[in-house]
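Q: My collaborator sent me two sequences in one message, no labels, and asked for predicted structures for both. Can we handle them in order? The first one she listed is below.
A: Yes, handling them in the order given. First sequence, followed by its structure tokens:
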Amino acid sequence: EYKKVLMQHPGESFGAHLPEEITPEFVREEVASGRAIIPANINHPELEPMIIGRNFLVKINGNLGNSAVTSSITEEVEKMVWGIRWGSDTIMDLSTGKNIHETREWILRNSPVPIGTVPIYQALEKVGGIAEDLTWEIFKDTLIEQAEQGVDYFTIHAGVRLKYVPMTAKRMTGIVSRGGSIMAKWCLAHHEESFLYTHFEEICEIMKAYDVSFSLGDGLRPGSLADANDEAQFGELETLGELTKIAWQHDVQVMIEGPGHVPMQMIKENMDKELEECYEAPFYTLGPLTTDIAPGYDHITSGIGAAQIGWYGCAMLCYVTPKEHLGLPNKEDVRIGIITYKISAHAADLAKGHPGAQIRDNAMSKARFEFRWEDQFRLALDPERAREYHDETMPKDAHKVAHFCSMCGPKFCSMKISQDVREYAAENGFGTIDIALDEGMKQKAEEFKKSGSEIYSKA
């Protein structure tokens, strides 16, 4: 029985190295090589450090943050608390409305997981939302302000260069990244190279001082299937690889952000190019969404792509909620997004053959076969939802030990019938089910002979 729980199918890791045991030496080697990062600002003492890299379990990020239209500090902190409870490995505060500093402070002081931000959002708020008025000095002050607070990783869209902006003109959906569009507008207004690119080494020095990690932003990611894997996207990726080398020279940790909207057959190219162009720095993707026709269900369209790219080697998946493209997610949307992405990440770990990944699945299957309902709830990614659905039709305590559910009832439950077969074999001294089956076949063969060995009965 113990061996059954430990069994695991071999996986396909696409070159990832997945040791049976994670040792301190292995962790140090992965971080030193740049293949993994541990985002941990020196000013975030509430943090419990975690690692992001393709040779470790796939992680997920949950986004939250207010907008100019809706939400409050209380609501965003509540989303964070519940997001962590539901399994988010990191949280990004993408606030663009009022009280950005205060919202971030409350989130940081209550978060045991790494917190990421996009500093350009607050810098833009400081200049009244006018991208052309942004300056390096304003952005630099914002970086220091957020680093002082304890932010663990910054999304910096330094790959959006002036030469790439014209490449987006013929796109179906243009530039869909908020940070990317802000910097593209600044570049065009001043007809200058982005100050994020020209001052990149100064940014590195600030981040090094506080041990903040880079999440190099994909400001030119595709916002539709039609724009996937185009020259603007991959041109920016090459620049992100160049910037990765510079950041490493300054002893700053780096992960690379990725798309976006990509059909399934084009996803692996994204992973392969990132590993090649960015020297195996951890990849961190938004989905990708595998179809554009399901608003209201984009947690599913993206969860499919997330599982796929996670299998290929993506280190962290940024969740997408049902509200994507439609509005600001509420607490329930956050729940659905996180659980969907926990499923995607776990499916990827199983496919890679990550040691021990299948144990929980085996334990669940065993509990399911033995009708241990309470254990099934505890092993579920979302125990409350599993219990809630079971309670809808079988709410009594007695139902929690029943050998059936409301789907098939007591007479047609396949697992109950399987158990009956095993019990019959044991009671009749057959030892195993295989022996019982052999004995049954012998009996039927004798009956066939006695009946005249006729294949078809005569009318």
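Q: And the one she listed second?
A: Here it is, processed independently of the first:
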Amino acid sequence: MEAATAAWMDRALHMAKEALENGEVPVGCLMVYNNEILATGRNEVNETKNATRHAEMVAIDQVLDWCHQHDKDPDEVFAHTVLYVTVEPCIMCATALRMMKIPLVVYGCQNERFGGCGSVLNISSDDLIGTGEPFQCIAGYRAEEAVEMLKTFYRQENPNADHVISPFQICKMADHTFIRYYSVLKITQLIFVTCSHAVTMWEALEYITR
């Protein structure tokens, strides 16, 4: 188990490095189903000018596409899928993971600004009615390496920060599989209604923008 986890996290860190090299916040992930990698993802926010294209959302889309291509039930596949990601999922992504009913997330460093797995909100474990299933988290795996990549990114200015499309604009789009099923507005409203920390809708929007 330890050897497999090390191999999967190596791949996730490789995806994070690829994100960094492409001017993105260096977060990388992969989804493993029955010991097979179904999806790899990295942040694509700057590349797509779409604030929802976090690594986890990219990977979710890939798994949904795989299920469609192989005539598999997404609920069954996600229920036996493990996410390996370099940084704690944000509130938006943690909500998506609950909706997909992914049982286990292994992540590197904490996301102290927008973390949805305990750092800011406990989306992963709280009793939230009608929002999928809670999931287990294993934190701190290769955290130092993940932090170093984040430091490298934030030492440089993000040239695309002013050109990313807002979540409200994305609600009008249907270019990605996950967005077609669960709009950003729905996720934001869910956070607003179920999480006492998000006093206003604007605070909820701030939470889901990493």
